[in-house]
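Record passed on underneath.
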Amino acid sequence: MFLDLLLQPQALVSHLRLQHLDLKDQWFQQQLLVMHVLYLMLAHAQVHSIHPVVLALHLLLLDALF
């Protein structure tokens, strides 16, 4: 019983650390996804000679989604 009381704070700290790492991982994955989408949009713009203003509007729309 006494050992459980001693380990509870450590278990809580470990749990909070894991949650923090999970949130950081999600943030990095989201950033990678955004970079990938931007890369694809730029490649698409180069292939189809899309005007820079149209590309900028697409980027604003993408920014609004994230």
Observations:
- The helical segments are 2-48, 52-65.
- Residues 2-65 form one domain.
